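[Discussion] Sanity-checking designs against the backbone

I'm trying to build intuition for which residues belong where. Below is a structure token string of 165 positions. I'd appreciate it if someone posts a full sequence so I can compare it with mine line by line.
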């Protein structure tokens, strides 16, 4: 197992010193991710390098995890491997974030100036999870809709009968 990440770091200081974080985060320690996966005992691997690009402090690297989602169709597990590239520009204001050149995404610091690297990991994983996870075969048009349209005429007939009584 890899080392656990530090909980709180100063990303600007890390960028000045060109520090790198390599480690892992248990999925169940990320509240936003924990509720979206079935394998909360799993972990995400992360490799982040803090450095300067010109005067700008950036974080780049990747986040990787083998997630197990619940198919919203058959409710069976759905393997969802994630390998996301991270390329963030560290900013203190939203305006500054809007000025970042592509493909940098903003990493907005709050007034403490500190971040929890696990938040970067959680952000990437949440982004990689589809809003409605489904197996490819489950996402195909289903017979259920056929059944519904077959049922509906009867429901309409029943209503007509009732209204005539
Ligand atoms: Zn399914």
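Best answer:
Here's mine. Compare freely.
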């Amino acid at each position: 197992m890899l080392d656990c990440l530090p909980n709180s770091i100063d990303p600007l200081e890390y960028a000045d010193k060109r520090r790198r974080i390599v480690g892992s985060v248990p999925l169940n320690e990320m509240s936003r991710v924990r509720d979206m996966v079935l394998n909360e005992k799993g972990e995400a691997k992360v490799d982040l390098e803090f450095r300067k690009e010109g005067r700008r402090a950036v974080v780049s690297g990747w986040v990787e995890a083998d997630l197990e989602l619940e198919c919203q169709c058959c409710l069976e597990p759905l393997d969802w491997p994630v390998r996301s590239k991270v390329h963030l520009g560290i900013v203190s204001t939203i305006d500054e974030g809007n000025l970042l050149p592509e493909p940098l995404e903003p990493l907005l610091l709050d007034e403490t100036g500190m971040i929890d690297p696990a938040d970067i990991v959680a952000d990437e994983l949440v982004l990689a999870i589809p809003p409605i996870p489904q197996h490819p075969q489950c996402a195909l048009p289903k017979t259920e809709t056929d059944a519904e349209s077959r049922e509906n005429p009867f429901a309409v007939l029943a209503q007509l009968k009732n209204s005539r009584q």
